[in-house]
Amino acid sequence: MLHSDGLAYLPVIEPRIKGDDTLHEGHSPVVATYPRPHFSGPIIAAGGLDGDTAQALVASGDANLVASGRHLSSNPD
Question: pTM for the full model?
Answer without folding.
Answer: 0.74
